[in-house]
Amino acid sequence: MNLVFFGPPGSGKGTQAKLLKNKFNIPHISLGDMLRDEVRAESEIGKRAGEIMNAGKLVPDELTIELTRERLKKPDCQQGFILDGFPRSLLQAEALEQILNDLQMKLDKVVYFQVDEDEVVGRLSGRRSCKKCGAVYHIKFNQPRVAGRCDNDGEMLCQRPDDAEAAIRTRFEVYARQTLPVLEGYRQANLLATVAAQGEIDDVFARVLAAINDGGHQA
Ligand SMILES: [Zn+2]
Question: What domain count does the chain have?
Fold first, then answer.
């Protein structure tokens, strides 16, 4: 099952991808995670990407395309994959088609997670994380035992620069401008399934399963 997960920042698609990955034992390929790994490793790609991401902007195409191509070549993608955060523009969508052609693969479904912008801004701007161990908290929904401190190591928690409200709104704007035409293309190709992403994680997951089974695709 070869899938693309689509959705604005904070749509919960990453959480859903992890659930699906565990259910079907196929890799969850998150472009954001791959980029953050590069940033943490302070690689050449990571240094370039870090500055751009902190400004709430999108990383250049040649970089994301290369990362995706190398990842899809790995043997664990043979039984399927969930691509998350790529493609985000028409150019990337074309590049993906080329990559899949080269690898003799094709997409089965593109799942679009639909959300309300204001709800997402409220949720994301409350996130705090630990620089030391990577643990993530929320000032309302997932508080640490001691305010402002990591449960694991007592480190001071901070807000990822791209979780600041202005950065989130910028990401929504960029997202809408660049990705809506891509969605339209997938709609015309009959690959698009829209899922209402609000509500309990399990309920959303049930909708995801229904969406990807629609059309008779086998797991
Ligand atoms: Zn920590």
Answer: 2
